[in-house]
Write a structure and sequence with these properties.
heterodimer; A: 402 residues; Aconitase, domain 3; five-stranded parallel beta sheet; 15 helices; B: alpha/beta; Glucose Oxidase, domain 1; eight-stranded mixed beta sheet; two-stranded antiparallel sheet; 10 strands; 17% helix
């Protein structure tokens, strides 16, 4: 990889240990993927949950922070493994919380925007079309490339922090024009009826696109940005997807011809039977859940409002918990709008600044988790410790409340 | 195969030697290897139950969460890491994990890509393997 004189200085250590450390990571990655240069980024997004970063992640981040590292660009921070306000009432062990707070402190010292959310694009990090960013969090990367039209690769733990400190990233993958056109098309040949259908559709695309860039034809007019958020998250959980050309939504992709750049591509029709197959695959049990989890990725304040309406006049049955996961910002807004109290009146709880797939569900004693999130279902089921019910929000609410 | 030298692309330098653990499926450390034991726990893996500690780990591609590099680094912190990683495609998590292992814990774990998976079936799990990450060479002997 070609480095300019200022980048070489950093690699030699003339910009301090944190910059040298960061430069070593990004240059090795750049060489591995055949990048020719490092390019500036407008923002970064970094991972923060102790459940995956472990004590080694604390060592890494404290090393960066102790050696004077500072983020060079606005850097939003992904959720933690615990509700940072109310962790005690969720039963999180003290020692676990302490390690999570060490990660949090390191991010404070590095200058992170501590939004603690995986939907930073709905909260505090707003790129514009064609900007280059370096984001971790696969679901957010899909949203960035596909809906906003900015450019990001899926940045791996450790490299996320390195890119944020340098304000630079290796130019490869989705940063290069030639890798962005659609190379396979999926056509919705069914009526999308439930929240689950959008997730299952995304999961089907992720499973079947392989390493190709998909276009999606035939999303209904009434699709919301939240639907697209969950669709993209499911796709990224099921395969190496970083972008989906949603025809009529993705900037520059009004037609299939524009999405593909005029090349003829394979077209796959998605039928009801395909979504049924995804459901069957992700649904591991018909047992009654001990936890119902909504919000992987985080629910927006609009979605929290919809949940409140669905829970109106209902009470959670004994023996079942229901957690709705959201950002601290949406949590605050929901509180002011009376949404939180409406949800809590049913016995359900809001959990902020964390998310189900990165919290210690097994240690908290949960064995059967019901969710409408294909991403949560995929991650939890691969560990094999907790059984998953994959069901529409409306159906599971009817089952676990009266 | 009897003994032989395979030539790939060295991504992270370093020399290592150990028994082979060979997966023919996409592999991840994230939720897939227990850092506390070095055992493969991924229910979808063809080497579930194998121990990667001290071994040369072969797999065709990475998969799944971008946190895999952090899971890998935790195996290093606990001394339960493989001593070398050999893949067909470039697995960025392996590259980043290995670079961080040197920076944070001073451990060299060579990473080599470009070793085609069709030769994996010829490498028996348990065969002795030596790896030179700088040269991009994998030596297999029985």
């Amino acid at each position: 990889m070609h480095l300019d004189p200022s980048q070489e200085k950093l690699l030699r250590g003339e910009g301090g240990e944190a910059n040298q450390f960061a430069m070593e990571i990004v240059t090795k990655v750049g060489d591995a993927v055949g990048a020719e240069s490092l390019v500036p980024i407008k923002s970064a997004h970094v991972l923060a949950h102790y459940s995956s970063l472990h004590d080694a992640g604390i060592d890494l981040l404290e090393r960066f922070a102790n050696s004077g590292g500072k983020f060079a660009v606005p850097t939003s921070v992904d959720p933690a493994s615990i509700d940072l306000q109310n962790w005690k009432s969720f039963g999180i062990p003290e020692e676990y919380a302490r390690q999570q707070f060490r990660l949090c402190d390191a991010y404070a010292r590095l200058g992170g925007l501590r939004c603690w959310t995986c939907v930073q694009y709905q909260v505090c990090n707003f790129p514009k079309r064609d900007e280059t960013v370096a984001w971790a969090e696969s679901s957010a990367v899909v949203f960035a490339n596909s809906v906003i039209g900015c450019r990001s690769n899926k940045i791996t733990a450790g490299m996320d922090v390195a890119c944020a400190i340098l304000g630079q990233t290796p130019k490869f993958g989705m940063l290069n024009d030639e890798n962005r056109p659609a190379t396979i098309a999926f056509k919705v040949a069914l009526e999308l009826l439930s929240d689950l259908d959008y997730r299952s559709l995304g999961f089907f695309i992720g499973r079947n696109a392989g390493s190709r860039v998909p276009a999606l034809i035939g999303l209904p007019q009434e699709v919301t940005s939240d639907d697209i958020k969950h669709l993209g998250a499911a796709a990224a959980a099921a395969g190496p997807i970083t972008m989906i050309h949603y025809l009529g939504i993705t900037p520059g992709s009004g037609t299939l011809g524009e999405a593909t750049g005029g090349t003829k591509v394979e077209e796959v029709e998605v039928r009801r039977a395909d979504l049924d197959e995804v459901e069957t695959d992700l649904n591991q049990t018909s047992e009654r859940p001990d936890l119902v989890a909504f919000g992987v990725p985080h629910l927006s304040v609009n979605e929290l409002g919809q949940l409140a309406k669905m829970l109106e006049g209902r009470m959670l049955r004994p023996g079942v918990q229901m957690y709705a996961y959201t950002s601290s910002q949406a949590f605050d807004m929901a509180g002011r709008a009376g949404i939180t109290s409406a949800i809590e009146a049913s016995g359900a709880r809001l959990s902020q600044s964390t998310d189900a797939e990165i919290s210690p569900l097994k240690q908290l004693g949960f064995n059967v988790v019901a969710t409408n999130s294909a991403k949560l279902a995929e991650i939890v089921s691969s560990e094999g410790e907790i059984k998953i019910r994959y069901v529409p929000m409306k159906d599971i609410i009817e089952e676990v409340t009266n | 195969m009897s003994s032989g030298t395979l030539k790939g692309r060295g991504l992270v330098p370093g020399r290592a030697e150990g028994e082979a653990v060979v997966s023919n499926m996409a592999f991840t450390f994230a939720h897939g290897v227990d850092p506390a034991t070095g055992n493969v726990t991924d229910v979808r893996s063809d080497v579930k139950g194998s121990e990667v500690k001290g071994k040369v780990l072969f797999y065709p591609f990475g998969k799944g969460s971008t946190t895999a590099s952090a899971w890998f680094l935790e195996t290093v912190r606990l001394g339960n890491n493989p001593v070398a990683l050999v893949t067909e495609g470039v697995d960025l998590s392996a590259v980043i994990g290995s670079v961080m292992a040197r920076l944070v814990y001073g451990k060299e774990i060579p990473v080599i890509s470009g070793i085609q998976r069709n030769i994996y079936s010829a490498i028996k799990s348990g065969a002795r393997v030596s790896v030179d990450g700088g040269a991009g060479e994998v030596r297999v002997s029985i």
